[in-house]
Amino acid sequence: MKVAIIGYGKMGHEIEKILVERGHTVVLTIDVDNRSEMMTKEKFEGVDVAIEFTSPTTAYDNVADCLRMGVPVLSGSTGWVERKGEIEVLCNELGGAFFYSSNYSLGVNVLFRLNRWLAKVMAGLPQYGVKIEETHHIHKLDAPSGTAVTIAEEMKAASEGRVTVPKEEIISYREGEVAGIHTITYDSDEDSLVVSHSAKSRRGLALGAVLAAEWLVGRKGVFSMDDFLSI
Q1: Active-site residue 136, yes or no?
Q2: First to last CA, the chain
Q3: Cβ atoms within 10 Å of 185's Cβ, excluding its own
Q4: Is 131 a catalytic residue?
Q5: Strand, coil or helix: what is 46?
Q6: What is residue 230's predicted lDDT score, i.e. its pLDDT?
Q7: Strand partners, 174
Q8: What fold, for 106-198?
Q9: What's the CA gap between 87 and 14, in Å, rounded?
Q10: How confident is the model over 165-185, as pLDDT tens digits?
Q11: What is the side-by-side order of every strand in the sheet holding 73-75?
């Protein structure tokens, strides 16, 4: 497939490496310094899918522009999800394809599923308090991470509001070049239950994004990792 990479930082470079390894062609690399000249209908002619990893302030416009150009787009940018509903409406109005996840790691998405099940169980055990902690590298712009926010939102929904960690109570750490650690702790006077995922590098995120992009090509609609992992 022919791919446009939007956001050519460390994640963009890792995605490019995996795309090439898997036999795909990167036809466009777009970053803040060339966006105005590269984000055009002409430049995107023949692009099968766009993979977007940028910032909370630019993600919405990037995704919306891809949809208006008729290009399927997968986004992993976090910190902008309050506008994701607008993108979903736009995608459906245009008959496009939009894929979003706050984290494309296959392991993290298994954690999401485990977290939903665990929240249902712990809803009946009020003696346990719960906290969410996340650690990332010092360059990460948003805090808490989109992954941690997703964990909290899904926990609340799965437990019908009986197990909650408000966004402002998620504990965030920024240390060195940590790829990403997310930990859920249920604690009582008698014991503690800890579930954690630790990324070893960005490669797991990049690989998951590429696999999801391969799956997205040829589809129409709004999708998530739950859709991808259900196939």
Answers
A1: yes
A2: 20
A3: 16
A4: no
A5: coil
A6: 86
A7: 136
A8: Dihydrodipicolinate Reductase; domain 2 (3.30.360)
A9: 26
A10: 999 999 999 999 998 999 999
A11: 25-30, 2-6, 49-52, 73-75, 97-100, 221-223
Residue 40: which residues within 8 A CB-CB, separation 6 or more?
A: none
Q: Where are the domains of the chain?
A: 2-104+203-229, 106-198
Decide if pLDDT at 95 tops 70.
Answer: yes
Query: 2-104+203-229: which CATH topology?
Result: Rossmann fold (3.40.50)
Q: Could you give the C-alpha distances from 225 to 32, 71, 89, 191, in angstroms and in order? A: 27, 19, 19, 33
The residue from 24, 136, 182, 197 that is catalytic is: 136
Relative to beta strand 49-52, strand 2-6 is: parallel
User: Which 3 state secondary structure label does DSSP give 61?
Assistant: helix
Mean pLDDT of 91-108: 95
Residue 141, exposed/middle/buried by CB under 10 A (0-12, 13-18, 19+)? exposed
**pLDDT tier at 155, thresholds 50, 70, 90:** very high
Closest CA to 63 of 52, 48, 49, 79: 52
- What is the per-residue DSSP string for 164-207? ---GGGSEEEE-TT---EEEEEEE-SS-EEEEEEE-SSTHHHHH
Q: What is the pTM of this model?
A: 0.83
Catalytic one among 2, 17, 140, 156?
Answer: 140
Q: What is the pLDDT of residues 79-90, one digit of tens each?
A: 898 999 999 999
